[in-house]
Amino acid sequence: MAGREKPNILITGTPGTGKTSTASLLAEATHLHHINVGELVKEKHLHDGWDSDLLCHILNEDLLCDELEDTMTNGGNIVDYHACEFFPERWFDLVVVLQTDNSILYDRLTNRGYSGQKLQNNLECEIFQVLREEAEESYRHDIIKVMASNTIEDMSDNVEVLKAWVASWRPVEAGCT
Ligand SMILES: Nc1ncnc2c1ncn2[C@@H]1O[C@H](COP(=O)(O)OP(=O)(O)OP(=O)(O)O)[C@@H](O)[C@H]1O
């Protein structure tokens, strides 16, 4: 079976590190399709209700993966989500982990109205590099890029690097998996 003609990229990281902003700029620059998983889960009800402790939807991973399977098989997607271990490894050609210094992330999350346990959980997630570890446990290390996302300059540099990666990407020949 022929492989996909365009790559799939996963952009992950703690909430507030800039996944959606980076993914939408990259989608504009490359004409790849941006999938904001959080929005998709809400829109298509790919969840098992609302977690009133964590103040977020309880993701149904099977429903989400079934929903995305055909799109991912076709290729040409930028998937943006704050978790990564449950996606099939074969979906992605590149996994980007965005990281933000804690004081900057604190300001971004408080500006967005996060407080209490939710704020604390997200800051700890970034301090302990939970998403970087999750990516390293779930994907080949040579397809992972860890990128700083502290400033607008970082964001535009990251988009340029990723745009160049997309331009140089070539489909894997059938039989050369
Ligand atoms: N590198 C950056 N420099 C400056 N501001 C940034 C940067 N990245 C993100 N921001 C700002 O931080 C806020 C959060 O960004 P964004 O929504 O893209 O993060 P996210 O990782 O997608 O969050 P979530 O997982 O909650 O959707 C936005 O106001 C955005 O403009």
From TrEMBL:
Q: What class of enzyme is it?
A: transferase
Query: Where this protein primarily resides, as one coarse class?
Result: cytoplasm
Q: Which reaction does it catalyse?
A: ATP + H2O = ADP + phosphate + H(+); AMP + ATP = 2 ADP
Q: What is its EC number?
A: 2.7.4.3
Can you tell which superkingdom this protein's organism belongs to? Eukaryota
Query: Is the keyword Oxidoreductase in the record?
Result: no
Q: Name one GO molecular function term.
A: ATP hydrolysis activity
Recorded hits in InterPro entries, A to Z, give: Adenyl_kinase_AK6 (IPR020618), P-loop_NTPase (IPR027417)
Question: Which residues lie within the region annotated NMPbind?
Answer: 36-59
Instruction: List the subcellular locations.
Output: Cytoplasm; Nucleus
Alphabetically ordered keywords of this record: ATP-binding, Chloroplast, Cytoplasm, Kinase, Nucleotide-binding, Nucleus, Plastid, Ribosome biogenesis, rRNA processing, Transferase
GO biological process, any: rRNA processing
Show the segment(s) annotated as LID: 111-121
The record's Gene Ontology cellular component field reads:
cytoplasm; nucleus
Q: Which family does it belong to?
A: Belongs to the adenylate kinase family. AK6 subfamily.
Q: What is this protein called?
A: Adenylate kinase isoenzyme 6 homolog
